[in-house]
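debug: dumping io for the single-chain case to check the tokenizer round-trip. Nothing else runs in this session.
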Amino acid sequence: MTNSAQAGQSAAGVREFKMPDVGEGLTEAEILKWYVQPGDTVTDGQVVCEVETAKAAVELPIPFDGVVHEVRFEEGTTVDVGTPIITVDTGGPAAGSGGGESSAAQAAMETGAGAAAQVTAETAQEQEAEPEGRQPVLVGYGVSTASTKRRPRKAASAQAGQPAQPEPAAPAPEPAADGYGTATPATGTRPLAKPPVRKLAKDLGVDLNTVTPTGPDGIVTREDVHAAAAPPQPEPAEAPEAPAGPAQPAQPARPAEEAAAPAGGAASWAAAGARETRVPIRGVRKATAQAMVGSAFTAPHVTEFVTVDVTRTMKLVADLKKDPDMAGVRVNPLLFVAKAFLLAIRRNPEINSSWDEDRQEIVRKHYVNLGIAAATPRGLIVPNIKDAHDKTLPELASALSELVTTAREGKTSPAAMSGGTVTITNVGVFGVDTGTPILNPGESAILAFGQIREQPWVHKGKVKPRHVTTLALSFDHRLVDGELGSKVLADTAAILERPKRLMIWG
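debug: decoded output
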């Protein structure tokens, strides 16, 4: 979609910028941060906000110059694709298309039937739809067939100072998907609260359905949320007289780590004042869950394991860290696991394939886009290094370092997370030996790299302390039989055991 298609026009000189369509499947995104406010001057291509899709955080540039007229949504609000999120005064005439009021409606408002004409124009604008059979999408794997719903607008007559006509009863809205302010089974209504209040409730782990509103017209206020989040104060009661006996020991204080709020923004037990906290499933976590379920129940998984002595690899890592030719790049065991895995794939190229269910074909890939699973504050993501098979050791080290840094900063682009062929997940950083990883959809294999630790090992006929790790390879058994999977895993282990094979086999 072009920039001109993304931006509409409303009143003369005021243009709307809509949540854009990147064309990869999602229908909504959450606004994480605004970089501009009303009154700020913006230029074509300037980033105005950051949004989170199901894959990553994405910065949105605006496609025209002007002065910010209105920011329509608060940070933390989830917005449908195609919805105007900001308006900009460009100082020019309206183009008459792209979502603004028609000239006929404007003329009617100027000549007497203003309120009714405005309602008619706005209603027509809201009902204007995309071509049949297609919904605007942002980033992801598919398009929801459910139609989006808008809140009913206030009657224009009330804005013009005339008595407002009672609106016809509307059917109960569908439950929202945010987990805080969803429809209750009993009433089917959604608690009234402003976006900042909803965000506060989310941060404190408060379900708005359980909050008693004290604001005008039944609106939940910030004070209501704080009151609901506070631990309940027991009423004073006369305690029964305890029988004589030995004094009870004092309860030990909770450790600081336990008392702190868990990762991801959830409130601590004491702050929540409840036995449970509900966290909405959305964004990266939602997409990951859907992808993993789809993969687990589509591709028949087989996992094989091997334990290997990597003492020589650890010595090589220590040597290369001092090498001037590797200055400025990060050298670690993961680098050599990646290089060994790539060489094993080169020796057994049939594993680097995908299954085309629609055409009933196996697609052999003559390139390796190596995915690296990365844990971020927004959830697990798997960006990949394009054409990793062609990279030298220093190039691969630089690519790994850049990938990890970008992921931790939340700046990984959607393109960096598409097109992967195989993946490595480094579970050893969490202090575990190995696991049974699940394939990323569309990929043929994933290698789990466990922790490296010293343990007794038979080396040259004697028991000695050696650095040992465990590798686990999961693969799609439609594409990879036991022999092929075993060869890839054994070759990877053999290279890590004797890293000079990188030169001999490469």
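debug: round-trip ok. The first strand starts at residue 7 and ends at 9.
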